[in-house]
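Worked Example 4.2. Read the sequence first, then its structure tokens.
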Amino acid sequence: MSSSYQYSRLESPEHVRLIHVSPGTMGTTITCEIHRACLPDSPVYEALLYIWDLDERAGQPAEYYCILCGEFQTPIPPNLFSTLQHLRKDAEDLVPCVDAVCIN
């Protein structure tokens, strides 16, 4: 398993990356795949906005959790990890656009 995701170039400014978070239950590993989508094609996704690195802003060292994006480990902040744990579904993919994962 490689240690970090390598972003490929987007085709145009109309393209975005979305993650497809695999179904799962609380406490199990979060796995996902990163897909590219063209905004004029009206992809269905959820925008996930949040504040990250709160610990660093408070002068504390940042703590990160890892999720699996394909074969790559991707570090994410604790509040995003907790949000994905709570939002992911039991039987279908969750498809959010998350800046910490989708933007290089």
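Now turn to a second chain, presented in exactly the same format:
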Amino acid sequence: MNKLEVAKLYKTIKKRYSNFDASLQAVEEDLDMLKDIPYDVAVSNIRQHIMTSDFPPKISQIRGRLGEQLERERMRRQTEDLVHKMADARSKAVPPPPGMKEALYARLNIQH
């Protein structure tokens, strides 16, 4: 969502919950936590919340389950990227030159 969409959403919430902070400051503060949620999803979550709760929604309720799904997807992509990098590094790895291990042990006075 963008700033205007968050403001529209907060105006809708304020109509149903008079004690909800829909100020410009609240919109600006919460925008960062809502910017990855599509507006239509947030509207749907708010409609459901209004029908089932007497209390104003929190950020987590505005985000709904989509926020969790987006976070899981981000973490999955990050993990896949790390696995590919590790596989690439593994394919490029080579054993140390012959005699290096023994020379190192000799310098450290370690019996092998």
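Notes for the reader: Residues 3-108 form one domain. Helices lie at 3-16, 24-34, 39-52, 59-92, 100-108.
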